[in-house]
Automatic annotation (TrEMBL):
One of its GO terms (cellular component) is cytoplasm. Residues 385-574 form the Importin subunit beta-1/Transportin-1-like TPR repeats domain. SUPFAM superfamilies: ARM repeat. One of its GO terms (biological process) is protein import into nucleus. This is Importin subunit beta-2. It comes from Trametes pubescens.
C-alpha cells in the first residue's frame, strides 16, 4: 500500500498500523519479504501524505527495534541524511522517529556504520538541531540527547559542555515543549553528571524555581521532578541546603488546587453520591500537586529538622488560613513532610493534632483527604455514602496498616466486618484503594488471618466478588493481587475455598492462551490483553499458602497446568514469559514434588533464557529464570545426581552474565544468588570455577538486601571458598566489603564468615596483614568490631 498513492489515504494508513502490530514477527520473515518491507517503509517516509508518513514512522520505530540498527544500518543513514540535507516535513518525521528510538532503545543505536560509530555523528547533529527555528525540532533534538545521558553514553559525555550550553541557551525558549525537555534534561544531568552543573548551580536553581511556577503544567511537572532527583541524591545535600528557603515556598504554592484542578473536579465530581461508571476504576494521572508533594517528601527525608525550621511558619499560615484551598494544601503538605520530619514535628503535635482532628468536620470535603485520627473513624469513612470520604478513609486506612503492621491483629474482626461492607458500598473509582487496603492488611498481619472466623468473614465476600468479575473488568488485576495476598496470609485455612480459586485461574489462563494462539492464525481477531497474568500471581499465592495441599488440583484429570506453563515459558510476550518463570520458582519453593517430574523439560527452556544482554522488555523474564534455577537446585538438595547434568550449562551461562559489562543489575543479582545456591548444593563441581567469578559475584551482591535468598547464596559462596581458598584470595577485599554490609546474618552464616576470616588470617598472617591495610577504614573497623580480625 505504500506504493499505491491512488488508494484512499485512510486505507493505506490502516495498512501501516496493521504492519506495526505484526512487526514483532519481522525476524521470522524470509529474506525477500524482509528486503521488500525495509524498502517500502523507507519509501513511505517520503510520501506526500502526512497520514502515510506518520504511519510509516510508527512502523519503522517498531521494525528498527526488532531488527536492531546494526542489522539495518541503511535506515539510520537515511534518517541522519534527512536531518542534515532535507528541510521541512520530512526532516521533522525523521527526527520524530529518532526521538522515539532514542527513548525506546538508546543502547541499540550505538553501532558502527562504514567504520564510524553512529552516535559520533548523530549527537553533534542533535546539538545543532537544538537551535532549529522549528520548535518541534528543537524539542525533539533535546529529548534525543537526554536519553543518551541516561545510559551514560561516551559520545555525548565527550560533548557534555556543548550539550549543557545548548540547554542554557534554550532555558527561556518561548515554546513550552522545549522548556519541558530542558527541565527533563537538567533532571537527568543532576542525577548522572552533577559535577558538570555545579559551577552553574545558582543559575540552574533559579531556572528551575522559575519553571516550577510555569503556567504550562508539563514544564512545572518536570521542574518538580528535578527537585525530587536533587533531594534524593545524597552527595548533593550540601548544594541543596542553601536553596531550601527558596525551593520550599515554591513547592508549597504548587500544592494548592489550581483553577484547572477545580474545573476538573467540577466536571467529574458534581455529586458525591452519584454512582461511578465502570471506567472510573482507572487511575488518574499525577498532578502538579502530587509532584510537589513527592518533592517535599524527598526534602523532608533528606533534611529532617532543617526543613521543618524552614517550612513551619509558612505551613502554619496555610493551616490557619480562612481560604479552604490554602488550608487544604497545608494539611496536604503536613502529610508530605511528616515521615521525614516526624521527630522534629513531635514537639508541635499539641498544636497541630487538635487542628487536624478538627479539620475532619470542615465543611469542605477535601480536608479529610490526608489525616484521620482513629481506626474507628477510618472504618466509618471507608463505608461512608460520600465517595470522596470513602477514598480518604481507605487511603488513610492503608497508610495506618503499613505503620501498625501486626499490632492490628486484635482489631481484625472489627476491621474485616467493616471492609466487607465497604465491598458493597464502595464506588467504582475507589475500589482499587479498597483492594490495596485489604492487601496491605493481609501482608501486615500475616498468619493472624488464619482464624476461622476471619477466613469465613472475608473469603465468602472475595469468592462472591470473583464470580461476578468479568475477564475484561478494569478492576480484575487489582482484585486478583489483593486475593493473592489474602491466600498467602491465610495459608492452610484457605483450603475450603481453593477449588473455586484454582479452577478460575486455570480456566482464565487456558482461555487467554488459546485466544492468543487463535489470533496468530486469524489476524482480524482481537488480541487478548495480558490481564490474565494476575491469575498467575494468584496461583503463586495459593501455592505459598497451601503447598502440597494443592496436589489434587495440580495433578487432577482436568488440570493442564504444566502444559500451560510450558507455553508461557517460551511465549513471545515478555510479561507472559516472566509470569511463567515466576510460577516455576514458586512451585519449586512450595510444592516441588509436583514439579519434579517436569524438571528436565523446564530446565532445557530455562537454561536457554540465561542471556547476559537481554532485550529490555525481557529482563524481568530472565531475572525470574535465573532465580528459579537456584530454587530448583536447593530443592533437589546436596549432590543430587538428577540435577548434576544441569550444573555445567547453568553455571557457565550464569558466569557469562556476571562478567558481562552491560548485564542489568537485577539479572546480575539473580545470577549471583543462583550460583551461590548451586554451589551450596554441589560445591565440588562449582568450586574449581571460583577464580572466574568471585570478584564479580561479590560486586553483584554489593548492596545487601538481607533475606533468606541472599543468606543461602552467601552460605554457598562460603562453602566454595572453604573448598578452594586459593582461588579466592584476589577477591578478598570485595568479599570483606560484602561481609560488613550484613547487619543480621543468620547464626550459620555469621559462623561461616568468622571461620573463613580466622582461616585467612591464621593461614597467612603476613599476606592477610598486607591486604587488610588496603581495606577501606570503615571495613577494617567493622571487621574488628564484629569478627575480631
Amino acid at each position: 500500500m505504500s506504493s499505491m498513492p491512488k488508494e484512499d489515504d485512510r486505507i493505506r494508513a490502516i495498512a501501516g498500523h496493521l504492519l506495526k502490530d505484526v512487526a514483532r514477527r519481522i525476524l521470522d520473515a524470509s529474506p525477500e519479504v524482509l528486503k521488500f518491507a525495509k524498502s517500502a517503509i523507507l519509501a513511505a517516509l517520503s510520501d506526500p501524505s502526512i497520514m502515510i508518513r506518520n504511519a510509516a514512522s510508527g512502523v519503522l520505530v517498531e521494525v528498527l527495534g526488532k531488527l536492531e540498527p546494526r542489522n539495518w544500518p541503511e535506515c539510520l543513514q537515511q534518517l541522519v541524511h534527512t536531518l542534515e540535507v532535507v528541510d521541512g516535513d520530512q526532516q521533522e518525521v525523521a527526527l520524530d522517529i529518532l526521538k522515539r528510538a532514542c527513548s525506546n532503545y538508546p543502547e541499540k543505536l550505538l553501532v558502527q556504520i562504514d567504520g564510524s560509530w553512529s552516535l559520533e555523528y548523530m549527537i553533534p547533529t542533535f546539538i545543532v538541531l537544538s537551535e532549529h527555528p522549528n520548535a518541534k525540532m528543537r524539542a525533539h533534538a533535546i529529548a534525543c540527547l537526554s536519553n543518551f545521558v541516561r545510559i551514560g553514553c561516551n559520545s555525548l559525555f565527550e560533548r557534555i559542555d556543548a550539550f549543557i550550553a545548548c540547554l542554557f541557551e534554550r532555558a527561556s525558549d518561548e515554546d513550552p515543549a522545549v522548556r519541558e525537555h530542558v527541565c527533563r534534561a537538567l533532571g537527568v544531568l543532576i542525577a548522572s553528571r552533577p559535577e558538570k552543573l555545579m559551577p552553574e548551580m545558582v543559575n540552574v536553581a533559579e531556572y528551575m524555581l522559575y519553571f516550577t511556577k510555569d503556567k504550562h503544567k508539563n514544564v512545572a511537572l518536570e521542574a518538580c521532578d528535578f527537585w525530587i532527583t536533587f533531594a534524593e541524591t545524597p552527595d548533593l545535600t550540601p548544594n541543596l541546603r542553601p536553596l531550601l528557603t527558596k525551593v520550599t515556598p515554591a513547592l508549597l504554592d504548587c500544592m494548592v488546587y489550581s483553577e484547572d484542578d477545580m474545573l476538573w473536579k467540577e466536571c467529574h465530581d458534581e455529586d458525591p453520591a452519584v454512582r461511578d461508571k465502570n471506567t472510573d476504576i482507572r487511575r488518574r494521572l499525577w498532578s502538579l500537586r502530587q509532584y510537589a508533594e513527592a518533592a517535599l517528601d524527598a526534602l523532608a527525608v533528606r533534611f529532617g529538622a532543617d526543613l521543618l525550621n524552614v517550612v513551619l511558619e509558612p505551613l502554619k499560615m496555610k493551616l490557619w488560613s480562612e481560604d479552604w484551598l490554602q488550608c487544604e494544601s497545608g494539611i496536604f503538605a503536613l502529610g508530605a513532610i511528616a515521615p521525614g520530619c516526624i521527630d522534629a514535628i513531635k514537639p508541635h503535635l499539641p498544636t497541630l493534632f487538635p487542628y487536624v482532628l478538627g479539620a475532619l468536620n470542615h465543611p469542605e470535603e477535601h480536608t479529610d483527604l490526608i489525616f484521620v485520627p482513629t481506626l474507628h473513624g477510618l472504618l466509618r469513612m471507608a463505608i461512608d455514602d460520600n465517595k470522596h470520604v470513602q477514598k480518604a478513609g481507605c487511603s488513610a486506612l492503608a497508610a495506618l496498616e503499613e505503620e501498625a503492621g501486626p499490632d492490628l491483629a486484635p482489631y481484625l474482626e472489627l476491621m474485616l466486618r467493616n471492609l466487607v461492607v465497604a465491598f458493597e458500598t464502595c464506588q467504582k473509582s475507589n475500589m482499587y484503594i479498597l483492594y490495596d487496603a485489604v492487601k496491605i492488611l493481609a501482608d501486615a498481619v500475616g498468619s493472624a488471618l488464619q482464624n476461622p472466623t476471619y477466613v469465613r468473614i472475608l473469603m465468602s465476600t472475595l469468592i462472591k466478588r470473583l464470580s461476578k468479575l468479568k475477564k475484561n473488568d478494569d478492576e480484575l488485576v487489582l482484585f486478583l493481587q489483593c486475593l493473592a495476598s489474602v491466600t498467602i496470609a491465610m495459608g492452610p485455612a484457605v483450603l475450603p475455598y481453593s477449588i473455586a480459586i484454582f479452577d478460575w485461574c486455570h480456566t482464565v489462563v487456558h482461555a487467554s492462551l488459546a485466544q492468543y494462539e487463535a489470533c496468530q492464525q486469524i489476524p482480524k481477531m482481537d488480541k487478548p490483553d495480558c490481564s490474565f497474568l494476575a491469575a498467575f500471581d494468584l496461583l503463586c499465592g495459593l501455592m505459598q499458602g497451601l503447598g502440597m495441599k494443592l496436589e489434587q488440583h495440580i495433578v487432577g484429570s482436568q488440570s493442564k497446568i504444566f502444559e500451560l506453563l510450558t507455553i508461557c515459558m517460551k511465549h513471545p510476550h515478555a510479561a507472559v514469559r516472566q509470569s511463567g518463570y515466576a510460577l516455576v520458582g514458586c512451585m519449586s519453593m512450595n510444592c516441588f514434588p509436583l514439579l519434579q517430574p517436569q524438571v528436565p523439560s523446564i530446565m532445557r527452556l530455562l537454561t536457554a533464557q540465561l542471556d547476559a544482554d537481554p532485550e529490555i522488555e525481557f529482563t524481568s523474564a530472565y531475572d525470574n529464570a535465573a532465580w528459579a534455577a537456584g530454587e530448583i537446585a536447593l530443592q533437589f538438595g546436596h549432590d543430587e545426581n538428577d540435577f548434576r547434568q544441569w550444573i555445567h550449562p547453568l553455571v557457565s551461562r550464569l558466569i557469562v552474565i556476571l562478567l558481562h559489562p552491560k548485564a542489568p543489575p537485577s539479572l546480575l543479582e539473580d545470577a549471583a544468588v543462583s550460583i551461590g545456591r548451586i554451589g551450596l548444593m554441589h560445591p565440588a563441581l562449582v568450586a574449581p570455577l571460583l577464580p572466574e567469578f568471585a570478584q564479580a559475584w561479590c560486586q553483584a551482591l554489593d548492596e545487601i538486601r538481607e533475606s533468606e535468598e541472599q543468606d543461602s547464596a552467601f552460605r554457598g559462596l562460603c562453602t566454595l571458598v572453604k573448598m578452594n581458598p586459593a582461588g579466592f584470595m584476589k577477591s578478598l577485599l570485595w568479599f570483606c566489603n560484602a561481609i560488613v554490609r550484613w547487619t543480621q546474618p543468620s547464626p550459620e552464616l555469621k559462623d561461616m564468615f568468622q571461620q573463613l576470616l580466622n582461616g585467612f588470617k591464621q593461614h597467612d598472617p603476613v599476606g592477610w596483614a598486607a591486604q587488610f591495610v588496603q581495606f577501606p577504614p570503615a571495613t577494617q573497623e567493622a571487621l574488628a568490631a564484629h569478627y575480631g580480625v
